[in-house]
UniProtKB/TrEMBL annotation:
Gene3D superfamilies: Divalent-metal-dependent TIM barrel enzymes (3.20.20.150)
UniProt keyword Membrane, yes or no: no
Family matches, as InterPro entries: Sugar_Epim/Isomerase, Xyl_isomerase-like_sf, Xyl_isomerase-like_TIM-brl
Secretion signal span: none
Stored PANTHER family: 3-DEHYDRO-D-GULOSIDE 4-EPIMERASE-RELATED, ISOMERASE
Gene this protein is translated from: iolO
UniProt keyword Nucleus present: no
Residue intervals of the Xylose isomerase-like TIM barrel domain: 29-266
Domain of life where this protein originates: Bacteria
Keyword annotations of the record: Isomerase
One Pfam family linked to the record: AP_endonuc_2
Name this polypeptide is given: 5-keto-L-gluconate epimerase
């Protein structure tokens, strides 16, 4: 398993569950110093990232790009994939494809989290699900040209009513004709929704494509009451070789959160 840490470039998301906030240059250099393998970037849009500059910074720090989040599509631009308005859905899919195109140049995936939207008084649950499936087909097919999957993240009930568990996510992926979508299993969301986090990971099997590595209270690993022994054993059992990515509050501050996650990563993966 490989280590990864989140960098947010989205001012509107201040206070959100991202570890590093100090711009790409400083954040990437710091992640490199601490020995991380990769970064996951949450950007306002693709225009906020200069691919050549990012490539230079990553090379200098010896890091890979693991993934790009699409959440700013919702947080900043109010675009979501289950919107009642067909034109808005099209814009949302375009936003996702643009992120896929940028991430793809780095052999990295785009992540669909909060852009999945939700059913409401206007869009009923089967329709919201249908819109989400259309978007995942579109993005999964688009990502295939870069030989990377699109990553879909079930969220807890307070953030979506589309898919809240790994089982729901597996069912959703099985209903698609594309095979090019994997699941992001976020331990914070799972701690709310799953009966047993380790069992859920095992049931996800080879569909588990990315992990958000975080504690029960969304603080860095080791700062809550999550029981990691069985979780790591489950990931080993399914032969998970991807990233354990710190998507956590910058608690007590970004530097210490990054150091704490790296200590925890080494403890759990090297013991
Ligand atoms: Mn997450």
């Amino acid at each position: 398993m490989k280590s990864c840490i989140t960098i947010s470039l989205v001012e509107e998301a201040r206070g959100g569950p991202f570890v590093l906030w100090d711009g790409l240059e400083k954040s990437i250099a710091f992640a490199g110093e601490l020995g991380y393998d990769a970064v996951e970037i949450f950007a306002p849009g693709t225009e906020a990232i200069d691919a050549d500059q990012l490539s230079t910074l990553l090379d200098k720090a010896g890091l890979k790009l693991a993934a790009l989040g699409t959440g700013a599509g919702w947080v900043k631009h109010k675009l979501q994939l289950a919107d009642a308005d067909a034109a808005k859905r099209e814009q949302a899919k375009k936003f996702v494809r643009d992120v896929i195109d940028l991430a793809g140049q780095f052999g990295a995936s785009a992540i669909i989290g909060s852009m999945q939207g939700r059913s409401d008084a206007v869009v009923d649950a089967p329709t919201a699900r249908k819109y989400l499936c259309e978007a995942l087909e579109d993005g999964g097919n688009h990502a295939a040209q870069y030989n990377v999957p699109l990553i879909y993240e079930p969220l807890n009930r307070y953030e979506t009513n589309q898919c809240c568990t790994v089982a729901d996510g597996v069912k959703l992926l099985d209903s698609l004709s594309t095979q090019n979508v994997t699941l992001l299993c976020d331990l914070f969301h799972m701690n709310i929704e799953e009966a047993d986090i380790a069992e859920a990971l095992i049931s996800g099997g080879d569909k588990v494509g990315h992990i958000h590595f975080v504690d029960s209270n969304r603080r860095p690993v080791g700062c809550g009451h999550m029981q990691y022994g069985r979780i790591i054993a489950a990931l080993r059992q399914i032969n998970y070789q991807g990233y354990l990515c710190a998507e956590a509050f910058a608690w007590p501050n970004p530097e210490e959160a990054a150091r704490q996650t790296m200590r925890a990563f080494k403890y759990w993966t090297q013991s």
